[in-house]
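Reopening this one. Same input as before:
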Amino acid sequence: MHQGPLAGVRVLEFTQIIAGPFCCMLLSDMGAEVIKFEPIEGEPWRLFAELVPKESRAFVSLNRGKRDVALDMRRPEAREIIHRLVPSADVIVINYRPGVAEQLGIDYETVRSINPRIIYCENTAFGRAGPMAMRGGYDIVVQAMTGLMAGEAKMQGEVPTFVHPAIADFATGIQMASSVCAALYFRERTGKGQRIDTSLLGTSLAIQTSQFTWIDAWDAEVIPRMLEELAQARAEKRSFLEQVEIRRRYRPLTTANIYYRVYQTADGFIAVGALSNPLRKKVLEATGLKDPRFRPDGSFELNPPGWEEEGPKLVAEAEALFRSKTTEEWGEILERHGVPNGPLYFVEELFDHPQTHANGLVCELEHPILGRIRMVGPAFQMSESPLAPQGASPPLGADTDAVLAEAGYSPEAIGALREAGVIL
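Same output, byte for byte:
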C-alpha cells in the first residue's frame, strides 16, 4: 500500500512526453496509485535516446512509482479493459491531441457515465475553446507564441531559441497536480467529481504575471504604440534583435543593475540577489561600492537622468571588484553582510551536495533493467503524511497482467488478448 497524503487514490494515466507524466509522478510521490497506459510500442519519451531498448533517461526521470499497462488503444477490446477499470478509479489524467480521447472512448462524458465521481484532468496545448483549440502543440511552440521565448531573447545566430528546461511543460505538470488535489478536496466535501482543463498556453501566461498585466493609466497608450511599431518592423523584415530593442524602449530593463546578477570571480562565478533597498545597501556595505541613486532620505531612484551613461561605469567597477577575489571569499563576505548569494554550478554537481541530501532532494532507486539510479526526490515534504518515491519507472507493460486480473480478466482471457495483439 502506498503511503502519503493521496494514499488510496487510484489514477489512470493516458499521457506522454513531459507535462502529463510529470503531473502523475508528483501524484505518485504523494501516495497515489498511478496506472500508466502506453501503446504497445511504448510512448515517444520511452524511445527517445534509448539507453537500452525501451528505456531512456527522459522516461525514467518522469515516470517513477507507476504501474504500466501496454495495449493497443485503438482496439475495442482495449476500450473494454479501460472501461472495466474506470469504476475503481478516482482520477483520469490525459494529454492526447484534441479529439483523440473521443475516438478512443475515454473522453469525459463517456467515463463520467461509468463513474460520476471521476475527476478528469485533460491538458491541451491551447485550451479547448477558440480557433486554435484543435491544434497540437509542444513546449517550444507555446514558448514562442506566449512571449516566453522573446522575453529570454536567447539566440542561435539570428533566430531566438527555446528556454531550457521545458518551462511550459514542467510548470503545467505542477499546475495539473495541484488542480487534481483541489478537485479531490472538493469531492471529499461534496461527493462530486468534475472535469479539469489545463493548457500549456494558460500556464505560460500565468507565470509571466507582471508582463501580462495591463494597467490602463500606464499602458493604454504605450502598448498599442509598441505593437504598431513591432508590426511595422516585421513588415520591413527587420531582425528579431531589432524587434527586441523596440520592445525594450517601451518596457525598459533596469539600467546598470549591480544588485541582481551573476559576477565572474577570480576562480568561477557567483550569483547575487538583492531586490529590496535594505539588501541593496548591504551589497554596498559588503563591497564598498558607492551608488549615487540612493538619496539622503534612504530612497532609491532606479533610473535617474543621465544614468544610461553613468550606470555602465558602476557596473564595470563592480565587475572588476568581483574578479579580485575567489567565489568562496565573496561568498563569505556577502553572507557575513546578509546578502543572498550562491556559486554557479552545473546541475550534476548537486548529486553529492550536502544541501540537497540534507533536504531529501536526492533519492536512490533500483530499476529492474537499468539498475541503481539516483534522481531528484519530492520537492516538498509534509510532517504528518510524508512523501516518498514509490519505486523506479516501470518497464513497458510490466503490470499488464496484474492490472487486467484486478479488472476481472482470467489468465486464459489475458492470454487470448495477448495472442490477439491487444496487449503486450
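So the earlier flakiness isn't reproducible anymore. For the record, The longest strand covers residues 33-38.
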